[in-house]
Request: fold
Amino acid sequence: MELHNYSSHLLEKAVNEFAKLPGIGKKTALRLVLHLLNQDEADVSNFGESIIQLKKEIKHCKKCNNISDTEICNICTNPNRAGNIICVVESIRDVMAIENTHQFNGLYHVLGGIISPMDGIGPNDLSIDLLEKSILENKIEEIIFALPTTMEGDTTNFYLFKKLNKYEVTFSVIARGVAIGDELEYIDEITLGRSIVARSVYENTLSQ
Amino acid sequence: MELHNYSSHLLEKAVNEFAKLPGIGKKTALRLVLHLLNQDEADVSNFGESIIQLKKEIKHCKKCNNISDTEICNICTNPNRAGNIICVVESIRDVMAIENTHQFNGLYHVLGGIISPMDGIGPNDLSIDLLEKSILENKIEEIIFALPTTMEGDTTNFYLFKKLNKYEVTFSVIARGVAIGDELEYIDEITLGRSIVARSVYENTLSQ
Reply:
């Protein structure tokens, strides 16, 4: 059904605000708003306030550009993390994904995007200067590129390498290959081809 | 991926608030919150405020229980609408759906739910007294039951009929049958059976 004929402008306004969110259409927006109307006023107020407060008070870490409640985020200030290795990621979601693996104990650098001419995103839109500043001011030994394995990710890797290559740092890139649990017949040719070229010596612990 | 390891409590709080909405999981909530973080502060503030304002200021029409910005909604106050016929619906969404058909020019009554013992919803949770008040105070000639064609809808129809039957009002129920465009072979037996029993005289305009 089409949605006009709202019996309330307040309702219409709230529905339109929700419908601006990605993946939320008018019908879903109406469902969400009517759900909120059935909640306690205090709960709805908390919801609204948490959104306003989020945008007003949240900060980007001045070292790594991660989202933070403080000037420097709790990963950068953690003395137990290796300060000489930086993992470069596109967004905070990638930080959370890598943290969930418990396989990395260094620092991050959140670029805030990747170079994508199609979307009008160039190097100047990314926090590359801040990354360079980190390299200059700290004893960084390794930069890990953990960007998407897409054309845009590869372009960004190449750009960063060209720009930062002059520093005495090792550059590495996360392993690409067949994901654990995948059946070979369903894997795209490029991934499968690369996984053969980049094969490693067999060890019994590999897939554990 | 699991979501813990939030780098910000404000972020975590906003994600948790979004994840309380129906059909929104933690991952979707994070996507929506990160989208909001990329918007202008004024836009995000508008979004939050519209939610808070909605719950604080919205009213239920004192005649029909529809959502309204005013004491009496704009359908009830419209002098061009037939005041002697009331269409009983479950929720405001049904009002909007029927309004979109442009086939009804009477008034509505929004029950705010239907009788559903499984969900703990009884007659006292619905705005039935208000409907009775409407019948007593106005010259109502027909009550149309436009509730879902489910067990709960049928139960509610029956309850309303038993309670309001003492008044001199015609009770009707919306037509049930094969939806326009449906192929017979895919229709459930009950609907198809009823549509044969409740067949009407063929007129050339029927499916127009």
Remarks:
- Helices of chain A lie at 9-19, 26-37, 41-57, 92-101, 128-137, 151-164, 189-197.
- The CA atoms of residues 183 and 192 of chain A lie 11 Å apart.
- The longest strand of chain A covers residues 85-89.
- Chain A has a mean pLDDT of 88.
